[in-house]
Every structure is written in structure tokens, then in C-alpha cells.
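retry 2 of 3: previous attempt timed out while embedding 1-O-alpha-D-glucopyranosyl-D-fructose. Reduced batch size to 1 and resubmitted. Inputs unchanged:
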Amino acid sequence: MEKKWWHRSVVYQIYPRSFKDTSGNGVGDLRGIIEKLDYLKELGIDVIWLSPVYKSPMDDNGYDISDYQDIAPEFGTMADMDELIEEANARGIRLVMDLVVNHTSDEHPWFLEAKKSKDNPYRDYYIWRDPAEDGGVPNDLGSTFSGPAWEYDETTGQYYFHLFSKRQPDLNWENPKVREEVHQMMNFWLEKGIGGFRMDVIDLIGKEVDRKITGNGPQLHPFLQEMNHKSFGNYDVLTVGETWGATPEIAKLYSDPKRHELSMVFQFEHASIDWDPQEGKWRPTTFDFIKFKEIMSKWQTSLNGEGWNSLFWNNHDLPRIVSRWGNDKEYRVETAKMFASILHLMQGTPYIYQGEEIGMTNVHFESLDQYNDIETLQFYRDNLKKGYTHEQMMDAIWKNGRDNARTPMQWDGSEHAGFTTGQPWLQVNPNYESINVSNALDNKDSIFYHYKKLIDLRKNSEYSDTIIYGEYKLLLPDDEQIFAYIREDENYKLLLVANFSEEEVTRAIEGEVNQVILSNYDATDYNLSSLKLRPYETVIFELK
Ligand code: TEU
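retry 2 succeeded.
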């Protein structure tokens, strides 16, 4: 496969609202990101994925855009944005913007026009249908945020389609004018020197509304090839599609370089492994470790040179990994380092979500009033109508609610964790006095420095090419406690062994140690024929 710069890169996702506030309004801003660029440089990352900062009524915290070519005032100005791009690029850090074009805000001028009349020139920028015979919704398609995917518009007596909130009307991608407007907007940003796009729910733009919604609709790949040709394909940039339903075969369609579509996709097979197939995250199921290893390994071996993986545990929609599948109490540091090692020794581009590098945890707010996320609040309301109890929903929110990832970044032990001098838009996790960047930077054994070592290993060590391009082989597939795999090429054979349990275990592993590369404990003399591992102990070896 032709080598690309983003094969060797590590991406850091910033949810700007919660990163760093410099204005005192309680909301993170662009100047706060500029202020922290040297911190990110210290960590060693190469790319920032910046969640949306465009003008928005913030119904979905910026994933509802009312002006794609202007900055939301709470985040700053276009001058701040230009400075951020310049300052990041000056540090060798590329800025990837979030492209949210499956839908706009209902306050976007296109929608304000479209809903004026049925013959408005912008009407077909969106998807409208007459009421059903009984006057109700046109069909039974549902919103991802609960409830119907149709909202009635009194002015014109039709329903409009919204796969997310009713304030996020879906764009009609069949309309060439919509596609042209999007390409033009993308080139506006590319001309500013950004490093690429993360494409929000991009699998949905090929939609077929009446013959039901299908992520990966028939027009999807032609639209992506057209978008590549008309915009980012003319730049050396990273593009990553958010594709909830992708399988390895589908991922190849998006990321095989010969197809001129995207660089890679986010797939969520592992990320939804303990969610009920019908009820999703609101009915958490048990974590199946064997299946988890199988899924992670399948994605390592099935693209075989015809596509590229993204690697992630966290993002702004997912609970924090150290709480979700680790142990965020007495083994928080060990399990955070374990997950970091497991992911960063794999093939693909790793993504670190803000706070993951210091082991930030889920939050446990007692009252629903302390939560902000529209998805959480709408599902709480509707699931109680469906018979869920308050306790069931609170338990699901504590486990899987999106606000777990959105509490403000914990910079130090001062008030509001040094995030703001005002009132934070969402309360800071009460554990900030112990879990914060300042403490992490002062402790050479912190999770931060473990991430820094892993990033350095991937990018600058003698093992780089083995990690980036080497073969992957899962060991002990049926072992209920051990996650072990090999990465190998003609130069090196690396072994990762993780004790994914709270017990001390002993295993016999084939091979002879040449040297220990990295451990999450003080290394001892490891003997592979009788390898003793402490709780969550994870070691990376170079084998002979
Ligand atoms: O997320 C897609 C999405 O559907 C997620 O919200 C996910 O399905 C859900 O949380 C799983 O329960 C993207 C953005 O990442 C998300 O923040 C936006 O809310 C959404 O699209 C709409 O733009």
C-alpha cells in the first residue's frame, strides 16, 4: 500500500466546548486551544480533530450548523480560527475540521428559506413529504435521538425529515445544488490550510427516505467520489468518515486508495459491543471479552492493504474507556495504560480523545438536571414513557451517556479544574483535584507519559514500520483473561500481552524475549514460558 503521512500520525480530538475557556463565559474557546498547543506538542500528537466551532444555536452543541463559514461567537472569531490554523501548522500539527453535512440547523438560511413555501428555490435542499392518509407522519422512520424522524411544518402543511433532533433537518443530497454548496464550503476551509475533515454520519448522505433509510445508501459512494474530486482530493489531507454500520468489506469501499474516496473510517463494532441490539446504550448488556478480541483482531486483518483503520476507544459520544471497560478506582492508572498500549501497538491511525491521556473518568451526577446532552434528555423522556424506570435510565446515563465525555478538561487542582474562571457550562467531574494535567506532568509514571512513550514508539523508534505496517496475529483467542497479539515484519517481532483481569495470572507464551519495550508496571524479569502478570499488567516485548 502506498505510504501516507497519516499512517504514521496520531490524532487528538478536541471537544472545544469543554477544552479551555479564556473568556470566562464557562465555554471553551479557540484561544484556549491556541494556549494549549504546546501541551499537545509535548504529548507528541500530529493532528487535531476539532469538533464543530461553526455558528450554531447549540441544540446539539454545534452539530447543528447555521453558518458553515463563520465561527460561533462563544468560541471566538474567524481571526482566532485563522490564528489557530497558523499556530498549529507552525508546530507541525494539522487541523482536521468536523464536516457536518448530513443535516443543518433549522436556523440555517437555507432552511429558513425552504420552509417559507413549497416553491421556494431552497425547498428541495431538504426532504419534505405530505402527511399520511391519517394526517400523521409520512412513515415510521425514527430519529436517532428518539421519536419520529418527521416534524410537521404548519406553514406549508408538510413534514420535513430529521434523523437527529427536529432542529437538525436532513439535507437532500440528491439535489446537485446541495452537493455544490457543500463542495464550495469545503474548499473555503481547505484554502485556509486545514489538514482535512472528519465527516459526521457520512454513511447517511446516500439515503433513501421512502424505501427506508439505509446507512450506505446506493448514492453514497458516487457522492463521496464526486466530493473527493471536487474538493479534498486536490489536497494532501486526512479524511475520516463516521460510519456506524461499517463492516470491513464496507470500510474497504470507503478507504481503498484506488477508489478515491476517504482515507479511513470510524467503525463502531467494538464501541457498541455491550449495547442491546434494539434498545442500544440504554439497555447495557455484558461485555464479551472473547468477542471483543475477535472484533479488534478482525479489523486488524481484514483490510489487508485495501483500506486503513482508525483506532479509538473514546470520543465525545462515548463513555470514557477507563470507566467503561477498565477499573477507574484502585486500578485506574494500570487500566488506562493497558488500553493505551493495546490500541497504540495496532495497525491504523490512533485517536486520543481529550482527557484520555490523563485517565479522566465517567461522571456520576445524581440529578438529571445536571445533564445537558439532547440525546440523553430526549431518551430519558421517551424511555420512561416506554416503561423504563428512573433508576434504569440513570444507571444507563451513568454508564453510557454522552456527557461522560463532555465534562470540562481537568487542567489543574484549582477551582473548576483550571478550565474556566466563570461558571462551567457543564459541571467539572469532582475528581479533578487528583486527576488533572498538572499532576500528570509532574509524575514521570503518569498515564500522560505512557501515552507519550507509545506515540514516540510509533513515530520515532526502530519499531515504527513494524507497528505501522507489520502483520498482526492474535494469540490465545479463547483465553478469558489475556489479550495477546504479535506484530511482525522482516525486521522485528513484537509481542503485547495484557492481563485484562483483576487477578494475578500465569501463562506460557511462545517465544524468547529480546527486550522489554514498555510495561504499565515496574518491569521485572519476565519469563515467557511461565509469564506471571499482575492485575491489568500489560507488557510490550521485542522477541528474538
Ligand atoms: O454522531 C452520530 C450518532 O448517531 C451518535 O450520536 C451515536 O449514534 C449515538 O450517540 C449512539 O448512541 C454524530 C456526532 O458524533 C454526534 O455528536 C451528533 O450528535 C450526531 O452525529 C448528529 O450530528
